[in-house]
Every structure is written in C-alpha cells, then in structure tokens.
C-alpha cells in the first residue's frame, strides 16, 4: 500500500507540472476509461466451471482496482490541475512585478521563482513551457520548451552563480544530444566565463546573461530560437558568415545531428528542409 501511495504521489507531482488544462482534461477522461475497464472485466455472479476459477479471481482483482481508480485518478488530476493553475498564476504575477522593476528584484528571488520567471518570459515569446527541475537548485535541465515540432531545453542559474562556467554549458549540451532536441538555453542574471562563451559559439546553445535576461523579460530580444530559419526570399542577403545552399541558393541554418556517427554535432542545413536536404559541414 505504501508503494502505491508513493507512485500516486509521484503521478500527482508529474501532472502538476503539466499545463493545468491538460490535467483538467484528464479528470473526466480517467474516470471514463477506468469505469469502462471495470465494466468490461466484471466477474460473473456465479461460477459453474471450477477450472475457470483462476481467471475469475484475476478479473475480480482488476475489477476492484478499476472501481477504486475511477475515483482516485480523477481526484489526482483535479488536485494537479489546481496546483498547476495556482503556480501559473503566481508566475504570471511574478513576471509582471519583475518586468516593471529592476535587476535588484531578480537578485532577491529564490531559485524556484527564478525558474518560474524565466519560463514565463519564454511563454510570452510563443513557447510552450513545461517545468522539469529537480528537487534542488541544480536539477540539470529546468525547463523543456516546444514551438511547432521543435523542442528546446533550458538550464537556469540563479543569481548567486555570478559567473556561469563552461561545465554547465557542457552538461546541457550532453543532455540535448542524448534527447535530440533542436536547441538549448542557459539563462543567468550574472555573466558567463570566456570558456563557456567559446564552447557555446557555433553550437545550438544560446547564452542569456543579465543583460539578455532583461531583454527576455521586456521585449524578447534574446528569445529567438538558437537555430532560426532565415527568410526564404533569395533576394534578401544572408547574414555574414551564413553560407548559401549550393542547390536552391537559400540561406542555410545551423542544425544538430540527431543520429549517425556525428550525433550531437552541428552542421549547416538548408532552410528549405525537407524540400531541400542539402547540408554542409561547419568549418
């Protein structure tokens, strides 16, 4: 029983990190599914064949659990939806307060509040944000974001990390390669070391320091995707250092290898993909 309680608690913790509308939708869905299962495996009133006793007992157990879960699961998702809604409301209020304040206000935030603030900033830039932080201030990947079919990861370093080292950037890059996401961000109200900046250069990682964070919260200057497609109109010149596709003459964009021997590595890919699959190695 203790183990089931732990599993149910874990389910509630996970569901509370989803958008509240998702958890709210699962309230009636979970009830209907469990109710249908309970009805489908309802054991017979009487047993005429003793050889079928084993299957009848199993059906009885499944029926009993389904009857219980048709009330437990909806309650879990309902509580999770309320928690998620309250958390989102607080992060929105925090965003509004800090947005009109100063950098000193950010310095007084806890690491949980800092993550919520960064997440809200990205939501205002059109990302779908899901919390993924651990139980401490250094939980690895703190936020997972989506925009369209692409996923991004965010590592938040609270203000006490005045200078973020290259180790943090490398850690994020390793997780990005393992989970094959489109790009990543490391956000801090402080600064980054020279090694951290050099490691991120040319990779699909954007480093957002205190100045960039101010832009994220105010006008989104630092919130563009690390690998944003260039305009498709060939009459618009590509930015300096960006090659043109040898086939269709469109500007190329930085992409990340998701499979093969160069998994996790960066390369130039045509902005017209999948229409054009031309690639170039990064020098």
Explain the overall architecture.
- The protein is of the alpha/beta class.
- The chain has three domains: 2-99, no CATH class; 105-218, Trna Endonuclease, Chain: A, domain 1 (3-Layer(aba) Sandwich); 229-283, no CATH class.
- It has helices spanning 2-15, 20-40, 53-99, 103-107, 111-123, 166-179, 194-200, 210-218, and strands spanning 128-131, 143-147, 150-157, 163-164, 183-188, 191-192, 205-208, 252-256, 266-270, 279-281.
- A five-stranded mixed beta sheet has the order 1-2-3-5-7, with helices on both faces. A three-stranded antiparallel beta sheet has the order 8-9-10, with no helix packed on it.
- Strand 9 (266-270) and strand 10 (279-281) form a beta hairpin.
- The longest helix has 47 residues, at 53-99.
- The chain starts with a helix and ends with a strand.
